Amino acid sequence: MSDKYQSFTQSAIGKVLVKNLGLPSPAKLERYAAGAPLVKGTVLVGGRGRLAESLDGLLGELDATSTDTAAAGARFKGLVFDATGLTSTSDLVALQEFFTPVMRSLENNPRVVVIGTPPEQLTGRERVAQRALEGFTRSLGKEIGKGGTVQLVYVAKGFEGSLLSTLAFLLSPKSAYVSGQVVRIGTKNASPAAEQVDPKKPLTGKVALVTGAARGIGEEIAKVLQRDGATVVGLDIPPSEDDLKKVTPDYITADITAEDAPGKIASYLEEKFGGVDIVVHNAGVTLDKKLANQKADRFGTVLEINISAPERITAKLLEQNLIRPNGRIIGVSSIAGIAGNLGQTSYGASKAAVIGFVDSLAEELPDGITINAVAPGFIITQMTAAVPFATREVGQRLNAMSQGGLPVDVAETIAWYASPASTAVNGNVVRVCGQMMLGA
Ligand code: NAD
């Protein structure tokens, strides 16, 4: 399941054609290798605001070399700008003054993070200025090139010390296919980060349930959570048992829509582990048809698998107090749930409902339990390999990185939410889409 166009653009003849015909030229994206440093290179820090004092310490914990001066000839892997001190739109020119001189001094796969204050917590001119940061970062994401990413992180007041797991994700190759995103820290009833973790093995001692773990994105989520130290309980339908047991020795075979599935899952987790720390609702299906040709059973099946079953399983686990304090619930939405897609009224509704599920639970979960979701764009899996060539090409190229993502890109985003240090990350929906042109 490789991207043949991307391989072609890296051949001698491909390079000539790309240059002369102005064809999209997908950069090679670096992925994280277990045990490697999170940031390989220097991070330039700019701006003056609430984060100024804590940023150097945070970057030090990531083993990143940081500096606040751009010496002549220096190259940068990352740029972090604390914009929390910008209190009116006339201050925004500070962004241009910091970024313009260094935009040509970036290494390959550079990482840019702008930090602001959630506008909804502000009033007047400061609110207007902070809202402007979204347009700035989303535009920079579309022009940075070289496989670079640009994000905006809104940090609520009082949460300055809760940024470590988020910077570890956004400044490292783990966020290879995440760009143009707005992350909120410390909003929606979140608690400040409490547990200290080893950034290289943050999930040591944690138990994670991953549904749909036998193949595709779910299999990769299981592997990444295991790499980070978790014990993974995989779940998939009975015909997938052979594949599932290769992923993890701890597994449940069930159709999540079966009436007894929530009870079966709860009993397994209780008896074997006394509870669960991380629940990833990844199992999902598409049964595409234009609405004019749709049948009630197919429409209903998509909704049952993609959202009603995750709702019932979550309710059961919460009711029986099986999700431990500082636990994590993670949904898998889709770009189709944000932008809509032809033939996908059922799928789009189910994936928008995953976002609704995050919104509805984020304010009411007890004991530091959080809920967040990922919304993948075009990810190269068996599901998308079946898409006809022309549609697949459009899906793969219509994003700022001119390529599809890999299952590992979704898995790494989920591992960031799952970290015990991400307690302040609650109620977010982050797209893993290479900044796709579709939707917001
Ligand atoms: P996939 O079809 O390769 O894997 C889905 C897994 O879920 C399979 O192992 C399947 O057996 C399991 N499953 C399906 N119905 C089930 C049920 N009723 N009970 C238990 N298990 C069940 O799909 P994928 O591409 O890996 O997608 C994983 C998730 O990511 C899905 O929720 C999908 O909607 C979402 N997603 C995928 C993409 C993409 O580009 N591949 C894009 C956006 C969202």
TrEMBL record:
The keyword Oxidoreductase applies. Residues 206-377 form the Ketoreductase domain. It is an enzyme of class 1 (oxidoreductase). Keywords: Oxidoreductase. The keyword Transferase does not apply. Its EC number is 1.1.1.100. Belongs to the short-chain dehydrogenases/reductases (SDR) family. PANTHER family: 3-OXOACYL-[ACYL-CARRIER-PROTEIN] REDUCTASE [NADH], SHORT-CHAIN DEHYDROGENASES/REDUCTASES FAMILY MEMBER. This is 3-oxoacyl-[acyl-carrier protein] reductase. It comes from Nocardioides panzhihuensis.
